[in-house]
Amino acid sequence: MTPQEYVQKKAVASGSSFYYAFLFLPKPRREAITAFYAFCREVDDVVDEMVDPGVAATKLAWWKSEIAQSFSDQPTHPVTKALMPTVASYHIEQRHLLAIIEGCQMDLEQTRYLDFVALQRYCHLVAGVVGEVAANIFGQTQDATTAYAHKLGLALQLTNIIRDVGEDALRGRIYLPVSELQQFDVKAHEILKRQYTDDFQQRFTALMCFQAERAHRFYDEALALLPQADRRSQKPGLMMASIYRTLLREIERDNFSVLNQRVSLTPLRKLWLAWRVQALGRL
């Protein structure tokens, strides 16, 4: 299997909404974003599939070493072999990849975030930096597009957090800020138990409405930041905004039943949403 085949398989197997946004890119950009996405998946899987935190930490340390070695023209992993030929063309820097690893490292070291400022730092590393790199690969020409990419990355990550509350609870993680749990009188142990009572349902729904409203606000702010000159090149990001915001609305319509199920969109619906942005320019 060639490095290109490996990263393609990794992207398809993930079942992620990102895959649908890649389909409409010219081949060189599609190959670059696929390799970059495969890298993100590799390091994220280290944490998500963790059995032993010590082993996971060792694997992330290996990835740091692999990135340093790759930028010295000695990649050894199929992902870095596929990614490195694209870094110069699309301004992918070593610091970008190390920041993403640092964000995954945070998942090994903490399972709570005291306030939204602390959560934002995590989101910056695992989503904002990803958005910045992706915007360059898509064809960014305006400096202001970087701010858009970071803000959109934050909105997408907050949507992920809302969707995955139940799955994260199974791993002992709660990404909802502690200060906001306190604000809505929701106890951490109630989320970890994943058991609804009438009283808990009311408090939890209020908390999740607050989270969703903030995510919607960041989508609006991101779209307002995107320069008109880059709107065409950034269509893949706009596809992601359309898909994830539709997902967020589905979660809202389902009254935030995220503790015991994963709300998702069908592949056909994701493809339709992506095509609508590509063909009609509409979110």
Q: Could you write a compact summary of the structure shown?
A:
By secondary structure, the chain is an all-alpha fold. The protein has helices at residues 3-14, 18-22, 27-48, 53-70, 78-83, 94-109, 116-138, 145-163, 165-170, 178-183, 188-193, 198-225, 235-253, 267-280. The longest helix is centred in the C-terminal third of the chain and has 28 residues, at 198-225.
First-last Cα distance:
37 Å
Query: In terms of per-residue confidence, which ranges show pLDDT below 50 for 5 or more consecutive residues?
Result: none
Count of the separate structural domains: 2
Round the Cα radius of gyration to an integer and report it: 19 Å
Describe what this molecule looks like in 3D.
With 283 residues, the protein is an all-alpha fold. The protein has two domains: 1-109, Farnesyl Diphosphate Synthase (Orthogonal Bundle), CATH 1.10.600; 111-283, Farnesyl Diphosphate Synthase, CATH 1.10.600. Helices cover 71% and strands 0% of the residues.
